[in-house]
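A.,

Following up on our hallway conversation. C-alpha cells first:
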C-alpha cells in the first residue's frame, strides 16, 4: 500500500490528538526549494482541538451510548456522571464534545434542548492523577537524561544517510551544489508535516516523499523514544501512573459497596497520550517480548508488539466496565482498549471476576507515588529562641473563585464505567460482549 495509506497509524510524531500543530518551524517548509506549500496552521490555535477531533469524540460517545444505554438512563447530574479533564484546553474541549453526544437533546436549554454539564480539572502542578509525569522529579530526570533516548538517537543516526538518499531520489533532487542540500533535519520536518496534513486535512503531498520502509523506520525511531521514556523500558516512566490504577479501583469499590443505589453511573476522565501509554504498560497490556534496541533486526522491528500508533492513536481510550451478577453478589470487569474488548493480563476470562482482578493487581495497588517520584517532604530547620510574647500574627484568608468556561478536549479518554444487573438484559455474558470488528476507531 502507499505511504498515505499507512500514515494514519505511524504518523504520531508525539501528536496523539487531532490538534493544531504547535511546531512553529513548520513555517520553514515554505522556504524549501520546489515547495508551494503554505503553512495554514495559525499560531493562535496552536495546541487546540481540531474540528475533526471534536467529531471523533462526539461519534465515540454515540457508540458508547448505543452499546451501553443502561449507563446513561438517569437524567444528567454531576454526581452520577463526574467528568474530569486536565487543565488543558483540548482535553476539556474533548470532554465537552463527548458529553454533548451523550446528553444531546435531553436538556431544556435553547431550541435544541441542550443539556449543560460540569467538567472539572486540577491545576497542572497538583494533578498527580492525570498528569502524573509533570509532578514527578524522578520521571523528569529520566526524561531529560540523554541516555534515555540513546537507542532512538543511535537508530536515527544509523538510517539518516539512507533516509536522505531515499527522499532525494523520490523527489528527483540531484547532487550538484545548485541542488537542494537535503539534511536529516529537513527529512524530519517533512515527516512532521506529513503527519499533521494527513491527519487533519487528508493531504498526502508530503507523505509522497517517503517510501513505505522510510515511514516504518521513522515510526520505529519514535517508538524507541517512547519505549524508554514511558514504556516497558522505563520502570519509573510506567510506575508513575499507579495513582490512576488506584483511582479506577476506588471508583469500582465505591460502586460495589452500594450496588442498588450507586452515586456514580460512570466516571469519565480526559487526558493525554502521555497518560495512556504508561497506564497501559502498568496494566501489563503493553509489552514486547523481544525488547527494543537500535540494532534490532528488521524482521523483529516489523513484527514487534510495541507500536504506539496502535496503542495510542487519536482519541485513544481505556474503559473498565463493571458488571453485577447473581443478584449483585458477584461482580466482574471487562477491559476495553480503544473500544475493543480484551482480557486483562493474568485473567483467562473476558469478564474477569472482580476479586481475582484485585488479586492480579494487588502489588501494583500498593504503590507509593511519592516514593516512586522522590517527592519527600522538606525537613524544616528547628527554630529556636522564638519570642514568647508581643508576637503579632497576621492570618491571610484566601478565597479562590472558580470560573466556569465552556472548554473541552482529549488525547486519551479514560472511562471507569458501571454496568449494573446484567440479568435484566435477559442475556448471559456472551450476549453482552462487543464485537471488536464493529468498533475499531
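Then the amino acids I'd put at each of the 441 positions:
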Amino acid at each position: 500500500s502507499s505511504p498515505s495509506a499507512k500514515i494514519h497509524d505511524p504518523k504520531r510524531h508525539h501528536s496523539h490528538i487531532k490538534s493544531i500543530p504547535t511546531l512553529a518551524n513548520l513555517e520553514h517548509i515554505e522556504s524549501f526549494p520546489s515547495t508551494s506549500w503554505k503553512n495554514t496552521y495559525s499560531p493562535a490555535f496552536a495546541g487546540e482541538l481540531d474540528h475533526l477531533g471534536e467529531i471523533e469524540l462526539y461519534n465515540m460517545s454515540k457508540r458508547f451510548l448505543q452499546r451501553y444505554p443502561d449507563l446513561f438512563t438517569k437524567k444528567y447530574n454531576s454526581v452520577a456522571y463526574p467528568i474530569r479533564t486536565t487543565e488543558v484546553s483540548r482535553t476539556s474541549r474533548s470532554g465537552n464534545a463527548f458529553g454533548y453526544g451523550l446528553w444531546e437533546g435531553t436538556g431544556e436549554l435553547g431550541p435544541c434542548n441542550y443539556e449543560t454539564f460540569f467538567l472539572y480539572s486540577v491545576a497542572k502542578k497538583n494533578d498527580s492523577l492525570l498528569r502524573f509525569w509533570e509532578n514527578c522529579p524522578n520521571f523528569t530526570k529520566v526524561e531529560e537524561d540523554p541516555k534515555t533516548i540513546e537507542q532512538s538517537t543511535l537508530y536515527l543516526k544509523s538510517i539518516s544517510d539512507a533516509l536522505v538518499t531515499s527522499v532525494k531520489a523520490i523527489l528527483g533532487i540531484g547532487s550538484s551544489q545548485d541542488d537542494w542540500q537535503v539534511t536529516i533535519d529537513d527529512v524530519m520536518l517533512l515527516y512532521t508535516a506529513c503527519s499533521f496534513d494527513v491527519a487533519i486535512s487528508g493531504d498526502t503531498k508530503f507523505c509522497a516523499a517517503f517510501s513505505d520502509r522510510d515511514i516504518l523506520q521513522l515510526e520505529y525511531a519514535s517508538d524507541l523514544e517512547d519505549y524508554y521514556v514511558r514504556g516497558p523500558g522505563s520502570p519509573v516512566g510506567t510506575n508513575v501512573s499507579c495513582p490512576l490504577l488506584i483511582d479506577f479501583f476506588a471508583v469500582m469499590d465505591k460502586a460495589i459497596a452500594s450496588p442498588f443505589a450507586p452515586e456514580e453511573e460512570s466516571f469519565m476522565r480526559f487526558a493525554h497520550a502521555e497518560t495512556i501509554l504508561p497506564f497501559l504498560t502498568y496494566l501489563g497490556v503493553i509489552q514486547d517480548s523481544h525488547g527494543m534496541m537500535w540494532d534490532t533486526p528488521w524482521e523483529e522491528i516489523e513484527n514487534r508488539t510495541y507500536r504506539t500508533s496502535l496503542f495510542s492513536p487519536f482519541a485513544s481510550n481505556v474503559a473498565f466496565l463493571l458488571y453485577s451478577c447473581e443478584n449483585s453478589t458477584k461482580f466482574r470487569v471487562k477491559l476495553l482498549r480503544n473500544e475493543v474488548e480484551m482480557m486483562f493480563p493474568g485473567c483467562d476470562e473476558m469478564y474477569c471476576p472482580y476479586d481475582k482482578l484485585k488479586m492480579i493487581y494487588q502489588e501494583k495497588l500498593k504503590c507509593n507515588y511519592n516514593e516512586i517520584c522522590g517527592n519527600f517532604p522538606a525537613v524544616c530547620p528547628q527554630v529556636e529562641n522564638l519570642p514568647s510574647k508581643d508576637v503579632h500574627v497576621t492570618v491571610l484568608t484566601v478565597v479562590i473563585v472558580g470560573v466556569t468556561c465552556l472548554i473541552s478536549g482529549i488525547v486519551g479518554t479514560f472511562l471507569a464505567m458501571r454496568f449494573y444487573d446484567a440479568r435484566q438484559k435477559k442475556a448471559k455474558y456472551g450476549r453482552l460482549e462487543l464485537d471488536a470488528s464493529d468498533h475499531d476507531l
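The two ends are 20 Å apart (CA to CA). Curious whether your intuition agrees with the design.

B.
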